[in-house]
Amino acid sequence: MEGKGGISVKQMKKLGLLMLVLILALGALGIGYAKWSDTVTITGNVATGNVAVGILDISGGIFSDEGVDPRVIPGDGGEVFVFVDEFDKDVATATSQDVGDPVCVMSNRQFVTALHETFDQVYPFYAPVAAALLVNCGTLPIKIETVTLANLSDDDFCMSHIQWQWAIGGGEVTAFGTMDEMLQALELIQVEPGETLVFVYQPVFLEETPQGAALSFDFLFGASQWNEVAP
Question: For a designed S-S bond to 177, which of 133, 137, 181, 202 qualifies (C-beta 3.0 to 4.6 A apart)?
Answer without folding.
Answer: 181
